[in-house]
Amino acid sequence: MNRIVFVILVVAGFNFSSAQNIFGKWKTIDDETGETKSIVEIYENDGKVYGKIVDILTDNRDAICSKCEDDKKDKPVLGMVIIDGLKKDDEAYEGGTILNPENGKVYKCRLKIEEDEDTLQVRGYVAFFYKTQYWERVD
């Protein structure tokens, strides 16, 4: 009987820990330079996940997305939604896109919380080619 109770508690604890919270503010960190660039707020709307730039941490606070090709063209980067339409799939969020405002390109996107829960793995990819950044949670 004690084994059954132990197994139930372990399984319940595992299910609780896998419900990591992706929502909130994240500091973006350039994977090549290590430079902090912005704060992105990740939120849910109508069952999908989005991310919006809420602060720019570089000298270029008035940046515009001059290389964008859609309705974001020549719009301010500050306040821009760059993560669009992800859905939860097991322990990751996928099925949407991420925009790189520096080059105007849109990539398929996957977000996943690391074990420490204060690091977000952000992966943008085209076919089999991908690039990964690790963002830090902002208190």
Question: What's a quick, concise take on this entry?
Answer:
The chain has one helix at residues 2-17, and strands at 24-29, 36-45, 48-56, 81-89, 92-100, 105-113, 119-126, 129-137.
Descriptive tags:
mainly beta, 139 residues, 1 helix, eight-stranded antiparallel beta barrel, DUF2147, DUF2147 domain-containing protein, 50% strand, globular, signal, Lipocalin
Question: What is the total tally of β strands?
Answer: 8
Inertia-based shape: globular
Radius of gyration using CA atoms only:
17 Å
Helical residue percent band? 10-25%
- Under the CATH scheme, which class? Mainly Beta
* Number of helical regions: 1
Q: Averaging pLDDT over every residue, what do you get? A: 88
- Sequence of secondary-structure elements: HEEEEEEEE
List the helices and strands and how they pair.
Layout: H1 2-17, E1 24-29, E2 36-45, E3 48-56, E4 81-89, E5 92-100, E6 105-113, E7 119-126, E8 129-137
Antiparallel strand pairs: 1-2, 1-8, 2-3, 3-4, 4-5, 5-6, 6-7, 7-8
Description:
This protein has 139 residues and is mostly beta strands. It has one domain: Lipocalin (Beta Barrel), CATH 2.40.128. It is built from one helix and eight strands, in the order αββββββββ. Strands 1-2-3-4-5-6-7-8 form an eight-stranded antiparallel barrel. A hairpin with a 2-residue loop joins β7 and β8. The longest helix has 16 residues. The chain is globular. About 12% of the residues have low confidence.
